[in-house]
Amino acid sequence: MAGDNDFVLETQDLVKEFRGFIAVNDVNLKVRRGQIHALIGPNGAGKTTVFNLLTKFLIPTRGKILFNGVDITFEKPAQVARRGIVRSFQISATFPHLSVLENVRIGLQRAQGTSFHFWRPASTLDSLNDRALKLLDTVGLRQYADVVTVELPYGRKRALEIATTLATEPELMLLDEPTQGMGHEDVDRVTELIRKVSANRTILMVEHNMNVVASIANTISVLQHGKVIAEGPYAEVSRDPQVLQAYMGTADVELAGASHGH
What we know:
The chain is α/β, with parallel strands linked by helices and 262 residues long. It is built from nine helices and eleven strands. The strands form two sheets. Strands 7-8-9-4-10-11 form a six-stranded mixed beta sheet, with helices on both faces. It starts with 6 loop residues before the first strand and ends in a 15-residue tail after the last helix.
């Protein structure tokens, strides 16, 4: 199967029905290694259901999911997480009353499988500090290391969630509406952060903000009524008549690169 190694994730004729309602309808995704791949579509298009299928919170009615060529269709959430598929803002249960540094350290402990060894001497935690501080550097939060997480501004909390996700060293990072509810400045900061952390990994993201998608996604898949109606780079997808039709009459998204000041 030459060339298949290019794809870190593939879905084949993926279907999910809920009591006769088809939420995901024959979806064939191919997520290329090292790319940022965006999943977009009007509300109710099936994007979240696709994410839930990929992270095994739902089992497909029909079809297959392959990760690095291995069939993971019926694996459990913990198994796919160990394989390196990690969804940010799902594991992100950041602990609000711990410091920013402590949260990242817990992420690193989880990745090492040492999260329950509370009787370990404190010095073993110090070895994690250097790595935790490096991660905080990556996401621009080093100066917040000692801040109690609950006190972080909203956009910075999202950056912390990305840091705790990165702590698990995911091969495929699933980002669920990473800029939702943010003002311009935070959107720009988180967009740049995603671009930065995508350097040596693959990212699949669900995102409503078309400016974000246009600026960082290599490939875009457009879902409508559970079906992929278009796929390709933004320039191509944004001119597709079927895509424009899908978005007509929804205040959800303007494809014309309108400014979004949520």
